[in-house]
Amino acid sequence: MSLSAVAGPARVAGGLFAFMLDVVVALFRRPFQMREFILQAWFIIRVTIVPTALVAIPFGAVIALQVGGLIKQFGAQSFTGSAAVLAVIREAGPIATALLIAGAAGSAIAADFGSRKIREELDAMMVLGIDPIQRLVVPRVLACMLIALLLNSLVSLVGVAGGYVFNVILQDGTPGAYVSSFTALAQLPDIYQGMVKAVVFGFLAAIVASYKGMNAKGGPKGVGDAVNEAVVITFTLLFVVNFVISALYLQLVPPKGL
Amino acid sequence: MGVEVKVEGLTKKFGSQMIWNDVTLSLPAGEISVMLGPSGTGKSVFLKTLIGLLKPDKGHVWIEGTDIANCSEKELYEVRKLFGVLFQDGAMFGSMDLYDNVAFPLREHTKKSESEIRQVVMDKMELVGLTGAENKLPGEISGGMRKRAGLARALVLDPEILLIDEPDSGLDPVRTAYINQLFIDLNAQIDATFLIVTHDINTARTVPDNIGLLYHKHLAMFGPREMLLSSTEPVVAQFLNAQRVGPIGMSEEKDADELASESGIEMPPLPPIPMQLDPSDGRPRRAQREPGEWCRENGITPPPGSFEDTAAVPTGGGA
Q: pTM to 2 decimals?
């Protein structure tokens, strides 16, 4: 393999990492941009909340269908609720959140920064003595983390409810068994790890989108490329990180005994 | 009073491509300088290096004892408060209206009350002739207005150094004349050091105290206006008089064959040196020199017809 084939991606990864450290340092620098934070949080909610709800219902339903069918063959219908809760809260919630945060919020952030970059707005801001990382990136990163956390609860809630509807109405499950088996396998740390995942995903999505947007070059086409790359990199990164967190979690937290 | 900018041995490369090499000059405090050069010679890159947006590969930029090319991020943000920069398209923040754009640096850097801010902003808006357009968004106004709004924003913090990137690109000749006059008047008022990057020769001939010419990856010449306008150095004479005859070709440099076929051709005589623009209130600027002073001091006879009010500005051709 030639050197440039390795050097190119390595440079992107290095730049991204350096940018992440800059953002982390700027997180603690005052004054905090409260107004920008609230505006961005509101903006991210606006672009993600409806798609999230719409994605969550079929997510919960699919899990209910799959698990319901399997579990019937084992003759353990009374645990359908438990399996659905585990699947939604541990995996589906954070994954659906990741998709929405990266696809809707991340692409919007990358496009915004990209157009600011090519219009020289970011340069103008630096020249006016204002650090765009502190002024623009930090509020977006925090907003993304907060909204990811909230979206995660929304997905979990809607997903479990969707599973309930499908199990009870379409698969003739008993409502009581579905609800009462919730706690049979699932435990409180499942929710915590779902929340941790969501926050980490929000952080990464905002960092990658900001980095790609702020380094857009070559006119309007560069902005399009930046958005495209930001979404692809975020997706890849989030699925890998999701796997790592899940693996760690399963090793660290003992499963609940029956 | 403006601040001197000293540039020493500045070199910039993008990858292996040399942009310019070993540029050394100093922008005298309080004077207007123009940086000229054919398209693609890195004039804007030079300007961005002066303000620390791009790091040079070698060299220093000294401003009040701070080396912008090699200082810490913190020092850089401190030194930048001395600067006002007008970007090519104004670089207005698209999400704010003009008023908020111009007020932005004041709100971020000063503890002024909203009513004081209002006064400063209205003052600057009037200066650039934008009264009444405060509530427009940058997307709703013409390029010329965006430029003037950008100038108003660059002025609100009373800069000591004003960097201006292509003030005339996309402006009609009348508006260009107005904006050139505005620079002269501003310089008379605030005594800041001006650097204008342009390739408009009319601007270069009538506005500045000093001219620099970037060509073929180096600084071909930098000095007082009259020195360059009376220079017979082929590159300088060709560019400042917009002629086809000379070393600059359609592509960056002419190839050897073309140059050889031209070698017998004499450069056309230099046109007269025009008068420098005066401030519109008639009082001379602090940095202003007598017309012809430099030529007399250096024993150079200016081209016939120089320093007469009727000296026309050449508009290309000549070959």
A: 0.81
